[in-house]
Amino acid sequence: xxxxxxxxxxxxxxxxxxxxxxxxxxxxxxxxxxxxxxxxxxxxxxxxxxxxxxxxxxxxxxxxxxxxxxxxxxxxxxxxxxxxxxxxxxxxxx
Length: 94
Hints:
Elements: E1 10-14, E2 23-27, H1 33-80
Antiparallel strand pairs: 1-2
């Protein structure tokens, strides 16, 4: 095992959100710009995924509502159709 050089940075063991093993990162004394940039990248990835799923659900609901409205319209027209009425017989049409 190799020794890391001594620096003024604090070594912090962190777990990532992936299945990889824990990694050793260095958070520098200046506020951890790199760490912050990585976390911002993960946050933006999560936001994109959330937006993508919300868009898929919106489209699904819109298509479902359109389909249900069309089905209801067809059912209404068929229920008003005299040919589907139980009392309808072709002999009574004249």
